[in-house]
Amino acid sequence: MIFLTRRPLESLSSLFKLTHQFYEGWSMAKITSYYVDRLQQLGCLADILQGSSKAISLTYEQLIDQPSSSLQRLQAFLGMNVPFSEKYSVQSFTGKRGDPSDKIFSGSIYRGKMHKIIPIDNDLLNEAGQAYSKCQKSLKAIDNEQLTSSAKPPATPGRMEKAML
Prior knowledge:
Number of domains: 1
Helix content: 40-55%
Oligomer: single chain
Distance between the termini: 24 Å
Largest sheet: 2 strands, parallel
Strand content: under 5%
Strand order of the largest sheet: 1-2
Number of helices: 6
């Protein structure tokens, strides 16, 4: 399992923009509740998977700020021989779920300026921050296990890798 998390302020602002620009426009309280619930679910999954070496954790910030090392970690975790790239193919389903903005259609990891940060009530931001911190503790335990576990031998190219060749 691959866990990808993002800091609260940026997540809440992004969800606000996403829901208001493309969907029904959630309140900040609903957005915060959604974010906190998701983090709690991720934390529970991480706790269950501790010790199994079947999970890896990355943050959005690591993926954006350190794409090469983040993609190398993912490649090693998945046991794939073909290097991962910051570039990707845009498919017919791209933008249909998740991020429907123009950035997803660029074909590469976007590092441009993030959209405007939305003012968020301190109580909601604190609630989200506490949930994020608790989730990160569970995810760090998974990362520590990944770092101390013995390296897996490279897998033979699978169907997905052969399709990329």
